[in-house]
Amino acid sequence: MHKHLLIGILALVALIWTGCTDKTKEVKEFHSDTFDITVLSADWEFDNKTMQFYYHCYLDEISSEVYNYGNWTLSREFDGGSKNAYQVALPMSTFMTDTLPNKSVYYYTEYLDYRVGVGYVEIQVTNSDYFYPKDAKGKLIKPDNMYFRMQVMY
After folding, report:
1. What is the pTM for the complete model shown?
2. In the sheet where 120-127 sits, what is the strand order?
3. How many structural domains comprise the chain?
């Protein structure tokens, strides 16, 4: 009786032990890449349909595999290359003011966000109430130069 019980327990342990290991799974390496993206003021485009500025950056490194199984973050970088450098993850809101021609002050929020697709990242600048300052000739003033860091993990 003890012999049958011992054999049963050993068989159960062997079944559990072999059932927990899956030799068909392949262990993949972890990869990460960091991309510095500079958007000069002149590079911003305005989309009249969505009422926002945008910058479309092609990144071949965002393959369909990275898109489907990877992860990423995009941050705006301030004071890059200095000891005071810091990053703010997007989306990011900045409270802004502008003095209108009648000398009144207009308060609005600048909202930075992004979207990612296979082969690209698109950075968007949207102002609250779709308020965009204009120059003396009535032309939209483009956003300032901005620096971004995209980190991709896959």
Report:
1. 0.77
2. 45-47, 52-58, 120-127, 105-117, 92-99
3. 1
